[in-house]
Amino acid sequence: MTQFARLHVLKNPAYRRYLIACSFEALAFWPQFILVAYVLIRDGGSAVHLGVAAAIAGVPALILTFYGGALSDRIPRRIIVVCAEIILAANATTLALLEVTGNLSFGLIYVSVAVAAITSGFALPSLLAIVRDIVSADELPAAIAIDSIRRNATKVLGPMLGGIIVGLAGAEWAFAANGVAFASFAVVVAGLPSNQERAAGRSGRVLGDLREAVVAARTDARIGVLLVLVIGVGLLGFNEGVMCPLLADQVLGGGPGAFGLTVSAAGLGAIIGGLIALGL
Q1: Residue 70 and residue 193 in contact, taking contact as beta carbons nearer than 8 Å
Q2: How many angstroms separate the CA atoms of 118 and 84, rounded?
Q3: Which residues are within 8 A (CB) of 100 and not within 5 positions of it... i.e. 6 or more apart?
Q4: What pLDDT score does 265 carry?
Q5: What whole-number distance in Å separates Cα of residue 171 and Cα of residue 43?
Q6: Pseudo-torsion of CA 246, 250, 253, 258, nearest 10°?
Q7: Where does the pLDDT of residue 201 fall: very low under 50, low under 70, confident under 90, or very high at 90 and above?
Q8: pTM, whole model, 2 decimals?
Q9: Which of 20, 99, 107, 260 is the most buried (most CB within 10 A)?
Q10: Whole-angstrom distance, CA of residue 118 vs CA of residue 240
Q11: What is the pLDDT of residue 88?
């Protein structure tokens, strides 16, 4: 398949809508990631506070993602994603109101992070798999590669955008903009076509699916090794939520803009990898 043939999937109108909407949603997600760390540092938080926030964000998402993957085989994925985006929109809007009124405390930030982590944990498998419901089997490899580039491009642009908004207008406006982006994505996903045969209805219990996954990981060495590698990279390599704000504040002596740039740098290599996978 030539490079231009791989881009044929962009002629699919449903995929184009999904790609554009996902881009705006991700541009909201990454500023939210920055804003929480920025507010913690701004209000006198330490590395411990950032570590607590990272743990609250990571542990529920890690556990609930398995359960969310099993649910995505039983409940239409659009319903799961739309409900999750509505919750994320309400969460971001609440943070904006708390920031405006001066009532945003460390405890409330932790609650907000927990809500976002639990919601994302349930919804992430459906969000990633929804591409399969709107493209053909021939288009799927290119669609996944393009979506990977999109995710990492927004990881580069989102933190920079978040830093700019905070610097120009304040954290409350950045939180409010995130709420609008999440709500807009919910509207777009609700209007996407869906292959109900793929997205809905499996029989059996969710815990049975989880046991099957564990057995597969134990019996297939390839799956087991891949899981160990992913867990290792996640533990040791994806700690920018703690390291980047400290680097920006204590080493670079900058504000949200410097933090945004440090997080943005993490996505550059992934974009290059996505372009290689796409064959461009």
Answers
A1: no
A2: 9
A3: 172
A4: 62
A5: 12
A6: -10
A7: very low
A8: 0.74
A9: 260
A10: 20
A11: 92
